[in-house]
Amino acid sequence: MFRKFLLLLLPAACCCKPVLSQTDSAFARSVVDTLTGTYFWGRGYTNNGMQKAAAYLEQQFRNMQLQPLNGKAFTQPFSYPVNTFPGAMEVSINGKKLQPGVDYIVAPQSRGVKGNGSLVPADTNQFVNPAHRIMVMKEDKLTWSAEQEQADFTLIQLDKKRFPETPQTITADIDNKMVHSFATANIAGVVKGTLYPDSVIFITAHYDHLGGMGKDTYFPGANDNASGISLLLTLARYYAQHPQHCSIGFICFAGEEAGLVGSKYFSEHPLVPLKQIRFLLNLDLEGTGTEGITVVNATEYPAAFAQLQAINNKAGYLPGIKARGKAANSDHYWFSEQGVPAFFLYTMGGIKAYHDVFDRGATLPLDHINGLSGLLKEFVKRLAQ
């Protein structure tokens, strides 16, 4: 069913095809602007956002004439449970109607609720309506996520700067739907190596984000991670025209925001033997860079990290490269746990929007994409040799 759904969406995705003659930065910008638009609705769990993004990426791989990684299809289907909010999303506190995503968010594990009543203070920042099992918490920043389980209560998180007064009454109409088997897919393609086709360098990035919270609010996910996908597609376009000695593979993971689900599935059901992976470069949060980049697993692979630094020191692609140790903070993790050499690279500095409605394409600078692209091309060239 997922495959059929992708094919139905391909005509819509084709209209979003970037122009291949653009420079790296302009091409990346077109990808970010496309993926953060309302059509893809945050690449999440409502309005078919993630499925539409998968269809778009599959079409890009076809346009670039990549080969399916498993020789049959670009998709690797899988499923997992997730709590979603497809319908009503209305909250009023002290008689004031609040704006979802800006004034408040509903915690991702929350159940749906419809009712009104008073709020009893539990402390200075927490307020409870026992009758409807609603909790209201004041927060310094609203940061949403995805959750694979549903709780037996509803948690509403308020931005304390926008709502400084003490919550006393609440009216809520919140619709949730627990999807026990959400169908999605990793998208994987390859440019075969000219001398060593069975030795693969992988470039990976997750394409999913948080989707929508109600019918009118979605989380664009520009830096996280339309930016990483834009860089991956930039490199895929390049390697499709410049094959290397070994194969260059590209995986766009689904389900990262729900707990690195797609990369875990791939690592447990690899489309190529893991021992054939020469190195894996995971791209996540690539939209800034005024303070350079950080490399996770740098201390695990010091020789490779030293080589990356040497390239940058000579060419000056980025303001700097910082080392970080092992961390389970993106899709590289499951591979390195199984002995695959892997780096996770992310940019630093610039805007701080993260997992909120303000992570938009219009405010994402992407001012170091060309530098990142140049650095990775040189690093991959050395790895491929």
UniProtKB/TrEMBL annotation:
<protein>
    <submittedName>
        <fullName>Aminopeptidase</fullName>
    </submittedName>
</protein>
<keyword id="KW-0732">Signal</keyword>
<keyword id="KW-0378">Hydrolase</keyword>
<dbReference type="GO" id="GO:0008235">
    <property type="term" value="F:metalloexopeptidase activity"/>
</dbReference>
<dbReference type="GO" id="GO:0006508">
    <property type="term" value="P:proteolysis"/>
</dbReference>
<feature type="signal peptide">
    <location>
        <begin position="1"/>
        <end position="21"/>
    </location>
</feature>
<dbReference type="Pfam" id="PF04389">
    <property type="entry name" value="Peptidase_M28"/>
</dbReference>
<dbReference type="InterPro" id="IPR045175">
    <property type="entry name" value="M28_fam"/>
</dbReference>
<dbReference type="InterPro" id="IPR007484">
    <property type="entry name" value="Peptidase_M28"/>
</dbReference>
<feature type="domain" description="Peptidase M28">
    <location>
        <begin position="186"/>
        <end position="368"/>
    </location>
</feature>
<keyword id="KW-0645">Protease</keyword>
<dbReference type="GO" id="GO:0004177">
    <property type="term" value="F:aminopeptidase activity"/>
</dbReference>
<keyword id="KW-0031">Aminopeptidase</keyword>
